[in-house]
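call fold(seq) -> tokens
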Amino acid sequence: MRIATIGGGISGLAAAWHLQQQTSAELSLWESQKHLGGCIRTERVGDWLLELGPDNFATMIPDAMEWCRQMGLESEFIRPNIEHRLARVVHRGKLQPIPQGFSLLQPTRLDAIAASRLLTLAGKWRLVREWWVPRRTDGQEESLEQFAVRRLGREVFERLVEPIVAGIFTADSKQLSMQAALPQFVEMERRYGGLLRAAWAARRERRGKGEPDSSRRAHGARYDQFVAPRQGMSWWVDQITRQLDKTSIHRQTPVTRLIHDVGGWNLLGPEGQLLAIADQVIVACGAPAASRLLSAQDPQLAQELAAIPYASSAVGLFVVRRDEIATKDLCFGIVVPAAEQRPVLAISMTSEKYPGRVPEDCCLLRVFMGGALRADLLVHEDARLLEMAWREVEQLLQLQSPPLHRQMVRWHQAMPQYCIGHLARLQRIEERRMQLPGLYLTGNAFEGVGIPQCIRHAKRMVSQVNAALPDRLKRSR
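ret:
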């Protein structure tokens, strides 16, 4: 029995590793690029540890951290610093703190909202009235904008919700599906009647259990529920790869077509050459690539996969002198509302979040640009984008000296957009997939763009693969 995983991003690595634990079948992993990990990439420049892609992952969904424990790596992961554990938002060109207790869409501390200079009295009162907004019961799919405005009001949406969520999904809030991207808040409304009511119920439940309430300390995100590898994200990928000792790994070997016949799944290369034959295949690459792989085998499935839109982005990295940043402006990150009409989505102070990224007298800034709303910016050359990003950093943080290091990285079609209709499309994709024996699909296009969600979905696909195997090939766990 031969099982192939196509794609060496975090989804493919998770699938390959868990396959090793569950089966003695012949395993292979195919990746078109030289490096594994997909968008996970760390570079070292002297004393600087630079994350070009994600720099941490969340633990609210436990799958990623649980996997690290299984690999014996848990001790190498660190939590964010305590100091400056907050986020700021740009309002009328100035930095304002996100009110404490505001996490994504949910306010948990009305006292902090009342004290915030970010909202007008009318905006604050409209947020308080969320308690009495009736729950929606018709099951109609809503965009982020529709849901947030209906429950919290236009001002809270524009000044808080939109920039916080845009910094995560790089999405157009008019198109982003709440049911697909942020179902936990839809469930709060369904179960409790609203977001404030849900926060109140959760607080009572935690008090009853004697548990701390991290949501009340949140400043846009619950930072105490994130972790990062001490030695960088690429170190983690290297450790995973070392443990794939029972998997044949093929780097720089693009699979361009999948064709099924009586012998199984034929993995074809760029010139149509046969690379391998597998009885079962897990496709763990982006939806556009998956569409191309399956275009000859199932045009309808390929069409559905190709219809999932993706956004591209650019990230400018700057190392600056830390003493030039005013203490009041030091934070974990800055988000920028679309209403501010600035060319950046967010600025992350990575070195404030995790120790050891740069020397203590420096600060590492990552400036995010592009996404679904500002795709027009990405036509510019790297030098022009760096100039635009640096101008924003200079203005917002009032820096005087040029950066010690500057670098631009681009991520083409890296972020799937969970637009209205995404869940219905996933259902159609699954119906087509089930008609193709031995084919499984995973990746960030399906049930979450975050690392833990990708790992969770990959594990689910592996469980389905394992269930289809004869008992003689299953490992005891």
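The chain has three domains: 2-39+232-308+419-473, 56-83+310-416, 101-217.
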